[in-house]
Amino acid sequence: MRIMRELDITQLLSYLRRDKKTEGTALNFILLTAVGKLQLMKLELDAVLQDEIAVIMEGTFKN
Questions:
Q1: pTM attached to this predicted model
Q2: Total count of domains within the chain
Q3: Does 3 fall in a domain?
Q4: Which of 22, 43, 47, 57 would be a feasible disulfide site paired with 28, CB 3.0-4.6 Å?
Q5: Is residue 1 part of a domain?
Q6: CB-based burial label for 61 (10 Å; 0-12, 13-18, 19+)
Q7: Does residue 2 belong to any structural domain of this protein?
C-alpha cells in the first residue's frame, strides 16, 4: 500500500476533469467542488503560515 505524503491538488483536479467514467455525473461535480474547496483552504493556510514565519523572523532579527 502506497502512502501519499502530500496531496497534489492540481494533479487530482486534472484527473477528475479528464476521468471519462464520471464525467458529467453528480459524483464528479461533488468531487470537483470538494477538491476546489480544499485548494482554497490550502492557499489560505499557506498565507497564514507565511505571515507567522514573517513574524517569527522579524522577532528573531530584532533580538
A1: 0.57
A2: 1
A3: no
A4: 22
A5: no
A6: exposed
A7: no
- What are the cell numbers at 48? 497564514
State the CB neighbour count (10 A cutoff) for residue 32: 15
Q: Are 30 and 21 in contact (CB under 8 A)?
A: no
In a domain, 17, yes or no: yes
Residue 20's domain spans which residues?
Answer: 9-61
| pLDDT tens for each residue of the chain, 63 residues long | 344 455 677 777 777 777 778 777 888 788 888 888 888 888 899 899 999 999 988 888 775
